[in-house]
Design goal:
Number of strands: 9
Largest sheet: 5 strands, antiparallel
Distance between the termini: 43 Å
Number of helices: 2
Radius of gyration: 20 Å
Strand order of the largest sheet: 1-2-3-7-6
Order of helices and strands: HEEEHEEEEEE
C-alpha cells in the first residue's frame, strides 16, 4: 500500500468512527425512563424511534412484590406526540397479564414526521394519573 493510500484509508476509518460515536450519542438521549409508585416499578426504553420506521418499539418492564400485574398494555398505553396527538399501540409482544414480573415490546405505528418530543403514558388500574415517560427527540436549532 502506498503512503497516500494509507492516509486515505485512515481518514475513512476516522470518519466511520466519528459517525458511529455521533449515532451512539443520539441513541443515549433515548435512555430508559422509570417510575415507581404503589409498590410497582415501570421502566420504558425506546428501541426503535425513527421517522423512517414503520413501527416504533418500546421495551417495557413492570416489577412488583406486592400485587398481580394484570395491566392490559394494549388498552392502557398511549403514545402522545408533541402536538398532543394520541396513538394507540398496535402490538404487545411479551409476558401476558399476571405475575410479579412482566416485560416485552410495545409497538406503535411509526409517526411520519420527526417529532420534537414524545411521551408514552401507561394508565395503571387503581392509579389516579397515568405514568408518564418522556423523551426529547431532536434539539431546536
Amino acid at each position: 500500500m502506498q503512503p497516500w493510500q494509507a492516509i486515505g484509508f485512515l481518514r475513512g476509518l476516522l470518519f466511520l468512527a466519528a459517525a458511529t460515536l455521533a449515532a451512539g450519542a443520539a441513541a443515549a438521549d433515548l435512555g430508559a425512563r422509570s417510575s415507581s409508585a404503589g409498590g410497582v416499578s415501570v421502566s420504558v426504553t425506546p428501541k426503535v424511534v425513527s421517522p423512517n420506521a414503520a413501527a416504533w418499539e418500546f421495551s417495557v418492564a413492570l416489577n412488583t412484590h406486592t400485587q398481580d400485574l394484570s395491566d392490559d398494555l394494549m388498552k392502557n398505553a398511549v403514545l402522545v406526540d408533541a402536538q398532543g396527538g394520541r396513538h394507540s399501540p398496535i402490538a404487545w409482544e411479551g409476558a401476558p397479564p399476571g405475575g410479579h414480573h412482566r416485560s416485552g415490546i410495545l409497538r406503535f405505528k411509526g409517526l411520519c414526521a420527526q417529532a420534537e418530543a414524545i411521551e408514552l403514558q401507561i394508565q395503571r388500574t387503581g392509579e389516579a394519573a397515568p405514568r408518564s415517560f418522556r423523551w426529547k427527540l431532536k434539539h431546536g436549532g
